[in-house]
Design brief:
By secondary structure, the protein is an alpha/beta fold. 44% of the residues lie in helices and 14% in strands. The strands form two sheets. An eight-stranded parallel beta sheet has the order 1-9-8-6-5-4-3-2. Strands 7-11-10 form a three-stranded antiparallel beta sheet, with helices on one face.
Length: 319
């Protein structure tokens, strides 16, 4: 199963692993790339020196293409933007901002640039700036999210731009991948399911929360601050959500309440104070598997769904 995205990125399957801060490291990215998809190292808020170490580690773990995700609101974004050129990274995805000021330098260095966009307007801007493709991410996703759902966003972005569109948000199995293709996408980006990859180094408490999650077990906080984040419902996330409606708390105080909470979840598995990022599709993620097993299941599931749909249409047509 391949598409124009497979050709652009020189990978076997048109599947990207999401760049999840504190989570998507060299070990996970290399495992995904070795399985035929595109692994992505997340820059997050890490300094360039830390990201550079992960890039060099990934090069030792795989000879396949992998990418780096740059969170543009990071104070280290400028440094990492230069780092990916110096380290000859093949693919850069971006999030939480507008990457236009970097794209020319990246493309001149031979980097394939694929911004994550939450709207048609930003997709058009990315195309004008020289992006090779865009990732249209719906609000079902974990982490930083927009308002529009994947089902509504993807076809509108596909109609608005000429470059390939990759769908993200609420995709965790072959049904989701097939649906994305039907909406016009040429590939998918998946984050939440890779949280339970055996190569994902998050705390076991984090993995257990994802595996036990139901369809209604996530919440989006931070809308008041202008950058909402979706995570699993906990006492911490519910409390943070409630405080957004407390006028006695300033935006600065609200921002500080969430500082460091992702690290507490990822590294310490802190059930009381951690922020466990996950998408609404967590209810479909039921067991820990290797990255290869996840990707193989996604491909087999997609083929089965598309084959069944095709067969049903043929049968009805003949009838």
């Amino acid at each position: 199963m391949s598409s124009i995205i497979s050709d652009i990125l020189n990978i076997r399957y048109p599947i990207l692993q999401g760049g999840m801060a504190w989570i998507s490291d060299a070990t996970l990215a290399a495992a995904v790339s070795n399985a035929g998809a595109l692994g992505i190292i997340a820059g997050g808020n890490a300094p360039a020196a830390v990201v550079g170490e992960e890039i060099r580690k990934a090069k030792k773990l795989t000879d396949k293409p992998f990418g780096v995700n740059i969170m543009l609101i990071s104070p280290h974004a400028d440094d990492i933007a230069r780092l990916v050129i110096d380290e000859n990274v093949k693919v850069v995805t971006t999030g939480a901002g507008n990457p236009s000021k970097y794209i020319k330098a990246w493309t001149e260095a031979g980097i394939t640039v694929i911004p994550v966009v939450p709207s048609v307007g930003l997709a058009k801007m990315a195309q004008r700036s020289g992006a090779a493709a865009v990732i249209a991410e719906g609000g079902e996703a974990g982490g930083h999210v927009g308002e529009i759902t994947t089902m509504a966003l993807v076809p509108q972005v596909c109609d608005a731009v000429d470059i390939p569109v990759i769908a993200a948000g609420g995709i965790a199995d072959g049904r989701g991948v097939a649906a994305a293709f039907m909406l016009g996408a040429k590939g998918v980006q998946i984050g939440t399911r890779f949280l339970v990859a055996k190569e994902c180094g998050i705390h076991q408490n984090y993995k257990d929360k994802v595996i036990k999650a139901k369809d209604i077990d996530t919440i989006a906080t931070g809308k008041r601050l202008g950058h909402p984040v979706r995570s699993i419902k906990t006492a911490f996330s519910r409390g943070l959500f409630a405080k957004e409606y407390d006028s006695a708390i300033s935006n600065e105080e609200l921002e500080s309440l969430g500082a460091g909470s992702l690290k507490l979840a990822v590294v310490d598995g802190d059930n009381e104070n951690g922020c466990f990022l996950a998408g609404q599709i967590a209810g479909l993620v039921k067991k820990e598997e290797s990255a290869k097993e996840i990707i193989d299941d996604l491909i087999a599931g997609t083929k089965a769904v598309l084959g069944k749909v095709s067969e049903e249409f043929v049968q009805k047509g003949q009838g």
